[in-house]
Design goal:
Helix content: 40-55%
Strand content: 15-25%
Strand order of the largest sheet: 1-12-10-11
Largest sheet: 4 strands, parallel
Structural class: alpha/beta
Mean pLDDT: 94
Number of helices: 11
Bound molecules: iron/sulfur cluster
Number of domains: 3
Order of helices and strands: EHEHEHEHEHEHEEHEHHEHEEH
CATH class of the largest domain: Alpha Beta
Length: about 290
Amino acid sequence: MFVEIDSDSGFCFGVVTAIRKAEAELDSSGALYCLGDIVHNSDEVNRLAERGLKVITHEDLHRLHDVKVLLRAHGEPPSTYATAVANNIEIIDATCPVVLKLQQRIKQCYDATDGDRPQIVIYGKNGHAEVNGLVGQTNGEAIVIEHIDELDKVDFSRPIALYSQTTKSVEGFRDIIAEIRRRLMPGVKFESYDTICRSVANRVGKLQKFAQSHDVIIFVAGKKSSNGRVLFGHCLDVNPHTYLISNPSEFCPEWVENADSVGICGATSTPRWLMEQVKTAIENSTAASS
Ligand code: SF4
């Protein structure tokens, strides 16, 4: 059986940079706090925890003083930076530059106007760390739309500025735009900004090609990864023999019993070493059954 790991799967550059920054600090001091999981993958989080990275919550941040805290690629709202200043916390800022630029654009839109400010609408996942960071740029006023049927939250008689969380799907964003245009009152201003990260969006076509080129696909992603669920869905659309696992212990040998070729792919939060472990598990299972 031929087993192949998708060369385009795995960490995006934002996650790679955040992990490098964490490892550099751990190399020199052996300990570092990280606000939230550095990546939505518990195996990678556990690997870094063994090296001294301690995940903390926002409540913990309020209690800590005089320490170093890493901010992950998702970014943070202004209130986090204010807490750090108040508590003499040194920030190691690993906010991805793509997210940072989006935060700045939303802040500029929010600050540029007051009386006639458009409704700032964010197509994204409610409560997701990146979205919290974006909403924070608007003093909590931005309207978050997760699905098209939530558009009732928007007033179509008032101007709208639409942005997207970086990891949402391009098709979903287009659907939201079309529905807003359909419901908008005549003469009302509507501007949309496609702020979807191409490091993710450009993967879909290549990933589907890869998924079609194998009998069975094993998709590796952490249970908390929303990007993982989206990319897994794209693989499943083109290959019904696609299975989602978070690590090798969840792999079922029966899935590949009759396959000549198996492809392994993952999300932007899936470490390469984990996909290698899955490859070994598949190869071991076929060796044991032959
Ligand atoms: S998905 Fe894109 S925006 Fe998000 S962390 Fe990765 S590179 Fe940055």
